[in-house]
Amino acid sequence: MSEEKPQKYNDKRPLPRQHRRCPKVDYHGRRIYMVTLCTEGRHPLLGELIGGSPETAAVEPSPLGLRVVQCWKSIPLIQKQLAQKKAETTGQPCRREISLIDCQLMPDHFHGILFVHSEMDISLGDVIRGFMTGCTKAFRELQVSPTEERRPLWEKGFHDRVLSHSGQLQNMINYVRDNPRRLWLRRHNPELFRLHRQTEVRGLTFTSLGNHFLLDWPVRQLVEMSRCASEEQVEERLQEVLTEARSGAVTYTAAISQGEKLIARTLREQCFPQVVLLCDGFPAADSPEARYFKPGGPYFEACADGRMLLLEPSEAVFQTPAIVEATNRALLQKSEARHTSYSGLAGDSQRYRFVALNQIGRWLAEER
What we know:
The protein has eleven helices and twelve strands. It has 368 residues and is of the alpha/beta class. The chain has two domains: 31-188, Alpha-Beta Plaits; 190-365, no CATH class. Helix 1 packs antiparallel against helix 3 (124-142), helix 2 (75-90) packs across helix 3 (124-142) and helix 10 crosses helix 11. It starts with 30 loop residues before the first strand and ends with a helix.
């Protein structure tokens, strides 16, 4: 997920019970991982959100939550025990291969960051399953009702992210520690984080999330920049957009090209309102992610402050005759500018849809 876009979903959406795993990672090597485990049914078994403001938000652990944290702290021992069992059959020496970096307990899930120092004979999955088993044992010990004993503590599997570039570790730590504040904001501003599947805007239908009052703003402007725009052209357009924003305009943008991204980021950093058009930016209505979806990173902050609305056109919008005509006309103009021919693009191609987003934005931003 890029800085300018919330997490994307495509046609290969995960089935229920599947979790985000990193491709081409064998989970044995030297890496830093962030893992996330959710309670079965997202029941708030691990603690309670407290605090009277976002700045004071915290999670007060339940007795089970305290045991979960204890189990997390025992992961190096779990790894050592598993490695010793493996060493008995391989004859390889047992090494201390895992250290813990940070963790955050939430009412219905748990985040942890750990460092695998060297290639392991066992996988990260083996270690996390050992952690989950310890937590489940504590869950059973704390239960008093025989009927509850049959309920699992965790969902099957876990989510993970792998540190892949410089600076990402601190971002991971900041994200984990910021979870209570973000939960506080969501609970106290539920309408700003509710997915609306049938939002009608000027005759078109969208999935939306954020401040819908921005749609009624009387002054609007569209940001559309070619991928070939020079730095000077982008800077000139940025200053024009900022001037309009300071005069009260709401900016519509798809934030696709680098120039569009730069302008959108600058507007966001200076706290100007935006309507951002997405392509495949929300989970499917019937997916397990839909219930708990929230925009990522800076998009979350802007939505929480009421400064952003996210719009994803429905399939019908992309097939609207006026949008199809405007998109093909724009693609033809782009081809003529490059002195190439244009014979049409498939309506479901990424190139076509990115250009269509800007035409949809133009449709919404123009006075009607």
